[in-house]
Design goal:
alpha/beta; eight-stranded mixed β-sheet; 13 helices
């Protein structure tokens, strides 16, 4: 595995007016991976070499994260811009379509991209992020509002940045390891990588700006229509932020849907149970 890890490359692409960093390995059809909060491309470290055998795997740093450009305006962190970023990356890398994989915020972007540009996707894989319509419905329930308390904290100016950088960014590590079921999935160097990424100038505010615009992304009355793209959802059942019930009824919005639940696993599913996630992804890809 260490040899395979050494085979991936760090590159940059400019699209939609921003310079984005990504890690890539392999050749063939494009598999594009979108991470969540408070992560960066590194959250796909167990998947990149696995799927590089059959794909050009590209794990992106979303705008505002790690080594990608960090626009200062809060208005730069809206779903319409994220969708343009993804479309530009696919085309800029010389592809017309891709297999799109998203976790957490990357999953939200992947869902919205699939509805906006179904013609650009071969397959869709979502990890621990409900369909936006289901999330909107969930936010009307007391249990999900309680789970999503941090989203309301993140609306505040300055205070969230101050809290997250205390004790040498230890809250970043705590968000990840503290909510994991398999805490051994994260080594000290893994957690240091996440803290270092969050500590880059402008990164914390950029990461939080995703949340500061969040309520415009999940409009309760939006007509989402029905996706016809083959879609796999993988769900760690012990997610502290997103209840399993948010997955129920997803087939209302997706005509060709599989869901694989992983028990005794938290929100960071592809890192907590990488072998199982890789197996489910590979089985889905050959269908």
């Amino acid at each position: 595995m260490s040899d395979l890890k050494n085979a991936w490359e760090h590159k940059y692409i400019t699209t939609n007016g921003v310079k984005l960093h990504y890690v890539t390995q392999g050749t063939g059809p494009l598999m594009l991976m979108l991470h969540g909060f408070p992560e960066f491309w590194y959250s796909w470290r167990h998947q990149i070499p696995e799927f590089a055998e059959n794909f050009q795997v590209v794990a992106l740093d979303l705008r505002g994260y790690n080594d990608s450009e960090k626009p200062k305006a809060q208005s730069a962190y809206i779903m319409g811009e994220f969708i343009k970023d993804v479309a530009g990356v696919i085309k800029g890398l010389g592809h017309e379509k891709c297999v799109l994989v998203g976790h957490d915020w990357g999953g939200a972007i992947a869902w919205c991209f699939a509805h906006a540009h179904p013609e650009m996707l071969e397959k869709l894989i979502i990890l621990n992020l409900p369909h936006p319509a289901k999330f909107s419905q969930g936010l009307s329930t007391p249990q999900q509002l309680l789970r999503s308390w941090y989203m309301f904290l993140f609306q505040l100016p300055i205070m969230p940045e101050f809290l997250l950088q205390t004790f040498d960014y230890q809250p970043i590590a705590q968000i990840i390891q503290g909510t994991a079921v398999n805490k051994n999935a994260f080594t000290a160097s893994d957690l240091a990588a996440y803290k270092n990424a969050a500590a880059k100038p402008g990164a914390l505010t950029a990461m939080l700006n995703y949340y500061r615009n969040v309520f415009s992304h999940f409009l309760p009355n939006k007509n989402w229509g029905i996706l016809n793209i083959p879609t796999l959802m993988i769900w760690g059942e012990n997610d502290t932020a997103l209840g399993k019930e948010l997955t129920y009824g997803t087939d209302t919005y997706v005509s060709n849907l599989q869901i694989q639940y992983i028990p005794h696993c938290g929100h960071w599913v592809q890192q907590e149970q990488p072998q199982l996630v890789n197996r489910y992804m590979r089985e889905f890809m050959v269908l």
